[in-house]
Amino acid sequence: MAKSYENEHPIKAFGWAARDTSGVLSPFNFSRRVTGEKDVQFKVMYCGICHSDLHQLKNEWGNSKYPIVPGHEVVGVVTEVGSKVEKFEVGDKVGVGCMVGSCRECENCSVDLENYCPRQIPTYNGYSPGETLTFGGYSDIMVTDEHFVVHWPENLSMDAAPLLCAGITTYSPLKYYGLDKPGMHIGVVGLGGLGHMAVKFAKAFGTKVTVISTSANKKQEAIECLGADSFLISRDPEQMKAAMSTLDGIIDTVSAVHPILPLLSLLKAHGKLVMVGAPEKPVELPVFPLLMGRKLVGGSLIGGMKETQEMLDFAAKHNITPVIEVVPMDYVNTALERLLKSDVKYRFVLDIGNTLKATN
Length: 360
Ligand code: NAP
Ligand code: ZN
Known about the structure:
Elements: E1 11-18, E2 25-32, E3 39-49, H1 51-57, E4 74-81, E5 93-96, E6 99-101, E7 121-122, E8 127-128, E9 132-133, E10 141-145, E11 150-151, H2 166-176, E12 185-189, H3 193-204, E13 208-213, H4 219-224, E14 230-233, H5 237-242, E15 247-252, H6 261-266, E16 267-275, H7 288-293, E17 296-299, H8 305-318, E18 324-327, H9 332-340, E19 347-350, H10 352-355
Parallel strand pairs: 12-13, 12-15, 13-14, 15-16, 16-17, 18-19
Antiparallel strand pairs: 1-2, 3-4, 3-10, 3-19, 4-5, 5-11, 6-7, 8-9
Helix pairs in contact: 2-3, 2-8
This protein binds NADP nicotinamide-adenine-dinucleotide phosphate and zinc ion.
């Protein structure tokens, strides 16, 4: 029998995949590895749709390996554990985020920063050992090393899956860059999946939050439902001017190329602009405004496994959940089109458990 994704591993699996840069998804039969001694096998219940899925489905970052089964905000229920698994039992609720492997011995791995390991293995569109393409959570089952699996807190609804990427990606830089101190004034640019979680975490840390958005129609909800203190339209120069030098830090979640200078102007001296959005092309970074106020521009990538569990436990304790639109699997292509137009408040979540049906 010719080698195919369907027979390269022993366990039958089913999901939706894109075959080319059109990014259009359709049903896909493939296979998962046998549950190894340190592996957890679980049935996927919910999976969030991240803008990174869209970037990669369309090869916007230039590293796509087709077929792509996306999905890195995955929540499910354990169906099997390997003989040396210590942290999980059958029936446990679990989550998997953006990575499923790393070297476990480099200077980053040894301080719980697997996300910065040069050999980090992404949950999909990467290679696991043996040059096997990884496939994500738009699928019925997953088999993952327990180190990259987190406990899903009991009082957290399983459809809050976006915490696993949108949540940790905004929680981690707020903490690392010291933007979590009560009384600080934090800006959040782009009110999408990541942005709305940034607002919720920044508020939970006791900071004042200003949303900086291109969408005037998001203002009322941002203030009334998400708890933002104020709202700026980034394309309104008057509003931006009036808010100059008011922010201690900014989390920029924008998925497309956009002007940076107006954001630097919003920062106080010594303020920090943290980029977490990942536009496909470089943004223009004017240097003089950085020099003048000793300002800093940084980046941040998801978070390590220890911090991801910490973030989930914090979210469960403080009742921080994403605002989601739960959709059936066969709605995925429409959801991706709407995501491209910023037409979602604020994250799509696929109801995999109830709506993913095998075709054969
Ligand atoms: P999203 O839900 O689409 O949100 C992005 C938001 O950016 C939009 O809602 C919109 O907000 C704003 N925006 C879109 N186009 C814009 C433009 N041309 N100019 C100005 N603002 C624009 O996406 P997401 O899932 O939150 O992801 C955001 C970005 O973060 C993506 O690039 C994704 O790949 C990246 N990401 C990075 C990490 C990491 O570890 N660093 C992790 C996950 C995702 P308004 O309507 O409010 O303007
Ligand atoms: Zn993501």
